[in-house]
């Protein structure tokens, strides 16, 4: 059994129809409006699938930056794109079928002496992606500014 090391609580308040205001347990974090796409909602904010995709992409990006740079993180040196593929299961229920994350790392990060080692480690230290992978396939690519593939994992 996994060892529990912490908890956090996030509040959701219904605003209108399927729109919810998400209140984080952080003093300076802005509230976020989440909403479903039509025909249920008005798409006035991201839905849960979009937040899941953003969380996985953010976690992978931060994990890679931490491994490569630690305390001396260069600004504006990573761009990340995540594609979420929606599918229907055998019961015709809508599901997140797959996430594909493409991280473009800038030259400042790629000059790290730890580049090769980090390419084998960073995914395992991403809390969200490692957890999601237990049920959803997540493909990951890291490329340089020229688009050359540096790392690929399925």
What is the strand and helix layout of this fold?
Layout (H helix, E strand, L loop, with lengths): L10 E6 L2 E5 L8 E3 L13 H22 L8 E11 L5 E12 L1 H4 L4 H7 L5 H6 L5 E6 L5 E5 L1
Parallel strand pairs: 5-6
Antiparallel strand pairs: 1-2, 2-3, 4-5, 6-7
Notes on the structure:
It is globular, with a radius of gyration of 18 Å. The chain has a domain at 48-153: GMP Synthetase, Chain A, domain 3, CATH 3.30.300. With 154 residues, it is of the alpha+beta class. The protein has a four-stranded mixed beta sheet. The protein has helices at residues 48-69, 107-110, 115-121, 127-132, and strands at 11-16, 19-23, 32-34, 78-88, 94-105, 138-143, 149-153. Helices cover 25% and strands 31% of the residues. The longest helix has 22 residues, at 48-69. The model has no long low-confidence stretch (mean pLDDT 94). A hairpin with a 5-residue loop joins strand 6 and strand 7.
Q: What order do the strands of the largest sheet run in, or round the barrel if closed? A: 4-5-6-7
CATH topology heading of the domain at 48-153: GMP Synthetase, Chain A, domain 3
CATH architecture of the domain at 48-153: 2-Layer Sandwich
Helix and strand content put the structural class at alpha+beta
In what range is the share of β-strand residues? Answer: 25-35%
- The total of beta strands comes to 7
Question: What's the overall geometry?
Answer: globular
Helix proportion range: 25-40%
Whole-number mean pLDDT: 94
CATH homologous group name of the domain at 48-153: K homology (KH) domain
Largest sheet: 4 strands, mixed
N-to-C span: 26 Å
| CATH class annotation of the domain at 48-153 | Alpha Beta
The H-and-E topology, N to C, reads as: EEEHEEHHHEE
Rounded to an integer in angstroms, the radius of gyration calculated over CA atoms is: 18 Å
Query: Residue ranges: pLDDT <50 for 5 or more in a row?
Result: none
Number of helices: 4
């Amino acid at each position: 059994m996994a060892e529990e090391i912490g908890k956090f609580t996030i509040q959701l308040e219904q605003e209108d129809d399927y729109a919810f205001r998400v209140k984080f347990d952080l003093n300076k974090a802005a509230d976020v409006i989440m909403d479903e796409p039509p025909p249920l909602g008005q798409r006035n904010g991201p839905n849960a699938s979009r937040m899941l995709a953003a969380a996985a992409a953010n976690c992978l990006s931060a994990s890679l930056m931490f491994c490569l740079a630690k305390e001396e993180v260069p600004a504006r040196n990573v761009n990340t794109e995540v594609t979420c593929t929606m599918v229907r299961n055998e019961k015709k229920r809508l599901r997140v079928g797959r996430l594909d994350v493409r991280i473009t790392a800038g030259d400042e990060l790629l000059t790290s002496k730890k580049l090769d080692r980090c390419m084998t480690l960073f995914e395992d230290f991403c809390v969200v992606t490692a957890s999601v992978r237990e049920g959803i396939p997540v493909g990951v690519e890291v490329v340089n500014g020229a688009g050359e593939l540096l790392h690929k994992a399925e």
